[in-house]
Design a protein that fits this description.
GO molecular function: metal ion binding; metallopeptidase activity
GO biological process, one term: proteolysis
CATH class: Alpha Beta
Distance between the termini: 50 Å
Strand content: 15-25%
Largest sheet: 8 strands, mixed
Structural class: alpha+beta
Family: Belongs to the peptidase M15 family.
Strand order of the largest sheet: 3-2-1-4-5-7-6-8
Cofactor: Zn(2+)
Organism: Ruegeria pomeroyi
CATH architecture: 2-Layer Sandwich
Shape: globular
CATH topology: Muramoyl-pentapeptide Carboxypeptidase, domain 2
Number of strands: 8
Oligomer: single chain
Number of domains: 1
Length: 189
């Protein structure tokens, strides 16, 4: 169902136009301490999964409102692919990811290594690595592990840390950065 405004444009046409602009904005929520003043009124996320082969590139927030269908697609994309379970991701994490991506000024999509993790998947990963937390924020849909070929772990982490909006972990050996919307903190290297 599309709605027309007085100029005859549909919401879908407006979304396509906004997506084509490739403008990404930073989050502006109360705990972010205004780190994105003047960031704009569009938020965009670009990712791909090496595990599933899926890609996502979409505007998910326009002028103060999350786009319901876009959020639904993000939740599906960030699902636990091992058990095919979907959980609503905490959009604060997606906002941090989008803001950090914007700060790095790259066109390359993130490679998503891990978004939501079911308790079963978290337990399996924990049995293989001591770097996996027992009560990981991944199980709450509040964390993502990401990689960019064109940016180092340090560059990615510094961009996420600059957001001052959640946790940032640097994993140099595995070449990824953890971003979450939990307590502001950082760890690794």
């Amino acid at each position: 169902m599309t709605q027309s405004n007085s100029t005859g444009l549909t919401r879908r046409a407006l979304l396509r136009a906004f997506t084509a602009t490739a403008v990404a904005a930073a989050p502006t929520y109360s705990m972010a301490a205004g780190f994105l003043r003047g960031g704009g009124d569009i938020r965009r996320i670009r990712m791909y999964s090496g595990r599933t082969g899926e890609r996502i590139d979409m505007v998910y927030w326009i002028d103060g409102d999350y786009i319901k269908d876009a959020v639904k697609e993000i939740n599906y994309f960030m699902r636990d692919w091992r058990v095919d379970q979907v959980k609503s991701m905490d959009l604060r994490t997606v906002d941090i990811m989008a803001a950090a991506h914007n700060l790095m000024d790259v066109n390359e999509p993130y490679m998503l290594l891990s978004g939501y993790r079911s308790p079963q998947t978290n337990a399996m990963l924990r049995s293989r690595s001591r770097g996996v937390a027992r009560n990981s924020l991944h199980m709450q849909g509040q964390a993502a592990d990401l990689r960019l070929a064109s940016r180092s772990v340090s560059q990615m982490a510094n961009a996420a840390i600059a957001c001052r909006a959640g946790g940032v972990g640097k994993y140099y050996r595995s070449n990824f950065v953890h971003m979450d919307c939990g307590e502001v903190r950082s760890w690794g290297g």
